[in-house]
Amino acid sequence: MLVVFALILLALVLFATEWLPIDVTAILLMVLLMVLEPWTQISPREGISGFASPATITVLAMLILSTGINRTGIVQTLGRKMAAFAGTDRRKQLAATIGITGPVSGVVNNTPVVAILVPVITDLAHEGKTSPSKLLMPLSFASMLGGTLTLIGTSTNILASDIAARLGAESPGLELQAFGMFEFTKLGAVVFVVGALYLGTVGVRLLPERVPAEEDLVEEYELQEFLTDVVVPDGSPLIGQTVAEALGDDDLDIDVLQLIRYGERFDEPLARKEIHEQDTLRLRTNRETLERIMDAEGLAFAGGPRTESDLHPGGEEPVLVEVVVPSGSFLVGETLASSTFRQRYSANVLAFRTRGEVVRDRFEDIKIRVGDTLLVQAPPDSLTRLVRNEDFIVAHEFDDVTYRTDKIPYAVGIIAGVVALPALNVLPIVVSSLAGVVAMVFTGVLKPNELYKSVEWNVIFLLAGVIPLGIALQQTGAAAVLGDGVAATAEFLPVIGVLWVFYLATGLLTSVISNNASVVLMIPVAASAAQSVGANAFAFVLAVTFAASTAFMTPVGYQTNLFVYGPGGYRFSDFLRVGAPLQLLLSVVTVLGIAFFWDLGV
């Protein structure tokens, strides 16, 4: 037990600090559990059992099915209809955002739903003269609330169902089994309605307007001091050199965004462009570097763009957009220098937003994390490639992206079948979801070569890695010891109070580590505690599941929060200010709802 507790402590530290990517941390734990088999009681077969777990396979299939839905453009279509309905009325915009996102997240994995809707909501906000900050956090929160409606709404629900089934098989006295498709929908509906009412009344007042309603990314990122035009006078030593030769030294931290010659503008690629006298160079650099290069090369200051319209007068190319880095992107763990992002997409990065902090210079060697946002200037063809690439979320909609709209009926029918068959007890969810994947390929909703690109492999490895930790907790008796410890609170708390303690503990844990990891750690403990106090184990498992699915208090508690962190211009404290009251409110609503709908057993 001490060895398992030590591994849990290591896991908590690594998950919270992100010293290693969370999937790598999970695999490390899996390896340590197997290496330390004499103490952890995890054999190699049990150590790798996470890869064969129905939860892991089901999540894998659901990620592919979600991509199939994305390819048809149905969510984007719903988003546009939402925008048309909402117009410039802020209350309608918020109601439409929550009303579309929640129900859709109940049948399609909520993470890709948010990834799809970020650009839709951002554009809706700007067109309606509303700050995106007022809509993007509610978008993320609504997706989490919607994920509680069905078994397949989140990977957390699927994993919790699998753990409950395993515990029920090992300890029949717990009377636990896999969740039904709509087993907790009635509670999820109550949670969704209460959460939506909070967001529409209290939450919207607590949300700051971090991003201006008028869309101007130069002003939003305060780039005026970092964008400068300089003229190359006669006799300058730069004349005759290429841009790369003259200003390509990485130590200078200078990007040449544009070369203007006799009114004609040249954009990427500029590296091999030869500099002539009287050329105007548009630079991104700091004042100190600018003064040094002007003195050394005899350049003349010629002002600079103050707004986005100055940067691209008359709406000319290239375009300026925010690009969010999602989970699974090749950029995660890389730097701009090591990833060759600029060269791949002929793009300039003008600013870098990471965990609420905006970096405007010297960002080439910053390690990129999930949720980081790049302010990118690129020509339209490069932006189209960015939009079509699963490695990025471009926070702006482009009309030239094509969808397989003729496949919408097939996609809707397949998802309906995937949901209905387990609900009617015809097939287990793992079988119906895999059958849905095959059906999507047969009907042309997805192409065979898109299957592997559709899977967020870091999520799969995370699940496979943490599942053995839950097994170790159970087999070594560590879960029982922790459960008995919490159950001791029943001496001065009613059972519903103990249930509330588990909800709060899970919510706090999920705020600093992965929601899936918190479910793996807390469900065995909750089941043991319920057994100790003679309560209904299912009620305790459900409280943990709901608490892990609704991590509102920090941007790192849930992946969808990271997706809106940058485009919303939020600070870490914004999530605490808006999310903490909601988490507390839902802790009471959920626990009372569980007590109302299910017998607590005492």
Please tell me what the overall shape is. elongated
For the terminal residues, how far apart are their CA atoms?
A: 30 Å
State the helicity in percent bands: 55-70%
Strand content: 5-15%
Backbone structural class: alpha+beta
Give the tally of β-strands: 10
Using only CA atoms, what is the Rg? Answer: 26 Å
Count of individual helical segments: 28
Overall mean confidence score, pLDDT? 84
Subcellular location: Membrane
Domain RCK C-terminal: 215-299, 308-392
Protein name: SLC13 family permease
Keywords: Membrane, Repeat, Transmembrane, Transmembrane helix, Transport
Can you walk me through this structure?
The strands form two sheets. The protein has a five-stranded antiparallel beta sheet with strand order 3-2-4-1-5, with no helix packed on it. Strands 8-7-9-6-10 form a five-stranded antiparallel beta sheet. The protein has 602 residues and is of the alpha+beta class. The chain contains 28 helices and ten strands. A hairpin with a 2-residue loop joins strand 2 (255-261) and strand 3. The radius of gyration is 26 Å and the shape is elongated. The protein is 58% helix and 8% strand. It has helices at 2-17, 22-35, 37-40, 44-47, 54-72, 74-86, 90-107, 110-127, 133-147, 155-170, 185-206, 217-220, 243-247, 287-297, 308-311, 336-339, 341-345, 380-388, 408-423, 429-442, 451-454, 457-475, 478-487, 495-512, 515-533, 537-549, 559-565, 572-597; strands spanning 227-231, 255-261, 264-266, 280-284, 300-301, 319-324, 348-354, 357-359, 373-378, 393-394. Among the domains are: 2-43 and 165-179 and 200-208 and 454-597, no CATH class; 225-304, Alpha-Beta Plaits (2-Layer Sandwich).
